[in-house]
Amino acid sequence: MSRLSPVDTKHSFVDSPVAAEVDLDGVDYADKPQRPPIDYSSFSAFHASLWRRFQSLWTRRFVLSLLAGQVVSLCITCTNVTTTELVSRNWSLPTTQTWFLYFSLFVVYTPYTIYQYGFKGWAKMIAKDGWKYIILAACDVEGNFLVVKAYNYTTLLSCMLLDAWAIPVCLFFCWVYMRTRYHWTQLLGVLVCVGGLGLLVASDRLTDKDYPALNMAKGDVFMIVGATLYGFTNATEEFFVRRSPLYEVVGQLGMWGTLINGIQAAGLEHKDMTQATWSGMNIGLLVAYTAAMFILYTVAPLLYRMASSAYYNISLLTSDFYGLLFGLFLFHYQPFWLYFPAFAVVLLGLVIYFWHATPEEQGKLDPKAPAYVHRRGDVTVGEERV
């Protein structure tokens, strides 16, 4: 995300936002055309300039960011539906369930990383940066585990509200890593999206979709810690993928996640594995869950580069609306009218987030050359990573 400079409007009636002076990769954007300014001199001029600014938002990368955000939101909905079905069919192994995700990431992206770097270059990368990826994978594994556990103890509405805690945590760690200075319109976009979440929670409350809590205090603590880990891992992964190839970051997350998750599953769920129902339908649901999560973990780093990890988090707030669509066909839910304006409010917040600076002004899609360059089997040490 760009480091945006505040705009001086004290001596002018025109709001002229300037592209980020220096993005995260050190590229100067000062020569880029300025965004259409907002003219406050008259109502007609204000209306015309507002429309020009809105039209300027719809760049190719902005549209792709919107679509990618809805893809990951839809993937989250698919994982919720498949997990609910698995639990109803006597298959409740949250750690074992996510092990298949990390293993699939490992077997797809790690061999490609070795192909690109060569085995020696890959080993050097692990020796230098492996500890960072171990921390990332451990936090990701435990975040997934704690959030699933939270749903077993506290109420649905409490989980929905507390899960939004990942957004300010992500914003904070983005500032820690990259010293991001958010424009007030970006923060407004986040608040509007959270307002849309509030409408969704209100609709669930009015339609009495909540369930009693087994141990609300314990579940809320699990959700807060899990959401904190989510925000930390999202910001950390954005920091990594802005400086290293995607296949390296995702492959390392999959490799270390497979080891950490496997050890945890063997220690916590080895007895339940023998008691669970391993039917053909359950295996199919497990495959669907893994496929949805694989797509999510593949698209999310792309979205981090196209927009930011904060934008990724607020995009996920539309997942409850997609959950309603699934419920209409699978569980014959009756839609409540508040769901539709809530979805529109979240989409409005996503547009407001880019009001001051488009995705093109918030970072490059391709980072600098990786530290280890592969050339047809030969490994040479390339430019050192920042």
UniProtKB/TrEMBL annotation:
Transmembrane ranges, per UniProt, are 62-83, 99-118, 153-177, 184-202, 283-304, 311-330, 336-355
What keywords were assigned to this record?
Membrane, Transmembrane, Transmembrane helix, Transport
Is Transmembrane found in the keyword set? yes
Among its keywords, does the record have Transport?
yes
Q: Name one GO cellular component term.
A: membrane
**Family of the protein in this entry:** Belongs to the SLC35F solute transporter family.
Protein name as annotated? DUF914-domain-containing protein
Which species expresses this protein natively? Gloeophyllum trabeum (strain ATCC 11539 / FP-39264 / Madison 617)
Phylogenetic lineage = Eukaryota, Fungi, Dikarya, Basidiomycota, Agaricomycotina
